[in-house]
């Protein structure tokens, strides 16, 4: 009975995420509707991106300079050229903005990029699963219900513009929502011989043209 009373008192927080645009370069849109009024609290979505997708920290820094998005990425140094099979997970804390007509509704978008995958046999695409974000609240001047929220181990301020420490909280009863799937085009293994042959032919042709131009127009002492 106690468990039922707690679940009834804690209103469900709903989370949706959507991948916008097409191709390797997308926008990840996250929307949250809290079960209770945030009361001036900072709201963020904590997302763990798998190795097949990443956030460019240099692009993110530029967007934050123009106040277009606010987020913190861990680790701070990311190899944007690494393929999927040697990359690591990326943890993103995306600060959400409150919607004008809905006090409990928050949302934000962050650009994400798909990594190159290994060539596959008989298929032209690989699937990347994005797990559902975790909703976090940081309240400096208000109190959250202990039955509905618990402290979270997040070592970052309440704002991307601040350096002051902050205690974040997460929902104890997470709603049942699904993650998003990203389909990434990959090469076919059966085409590897053709690709290698064309690459060598193109390289040889371009090298020959460069040498011909150098011999014809170059000045050698």
UniProtKB/TrEMBL annotation:
Alphabetically sorted, this entry's keywords are: Endoplasmic reticulum, Glycoprotein, GPI-anchor biosynthesis, Membrane, Transmembrane, Transmembrane helix
- Please cite one Gene Ontology biological process associated with this protein: GPI anchor biosynthetic process
Quick one: which pathway? Glycolipid biosynthesis; glycosylphosphatidylinositol-anchor biosynthesis
Q: Which InterPro entries does this UniProt record tie to the protein?
A: PIG-X/PBN1, PIGX
Where does the record say this protein resides? Answer: Endoplasmic reticulum membrane
Q: Which domain of life is it from?
A: Eukaryota
An example GO CC term for this entry is: endoplasmic reticulum membrane
Q: What is its main location?
A: endoplasmic reticulum
Topology of this chain in the membrane = Single-pass membrane protein
Short name of any one Pfam family annotated for the protein: PIG-X
**Has UniProt tagged this entry with the keyword Ligase?**
no
Q: What does this protein do?
A: Stabilizing subunit of the glycosylphosphatidylinositol-mannosyltransferase I complex which catalyzes the transfer of the first mannose, via an alpha-1,4 bond from a dolichol-phosphate-mannose (Dol-P-Man) to the glucosaminyl acyl phosphatidylinositol (GlcN-(acyl)PI) intermediate to generate alpha-D-Man-(1->4)-alpha-D-GlcN-(1->6)-(1-radyl,2-acyl-sn-glycero-3-phospho)-2-acyl-inositol and participates in the sixth step of the glycosylphosphatidylinositol-anchor biosynthesis. Probably acts by stabilizing the mannosyltransferase PIGM.
Return the similarity comment.
Answer: Belongs to the PIGX family.
Protein name per its UniProtKB record: Phosphatidylinositol-glycan biosynthesis class X protein
Q: What is the lineage of its organism?
A: Eukaryota, Metazoa, Chordata, Craniata, Vertebrata
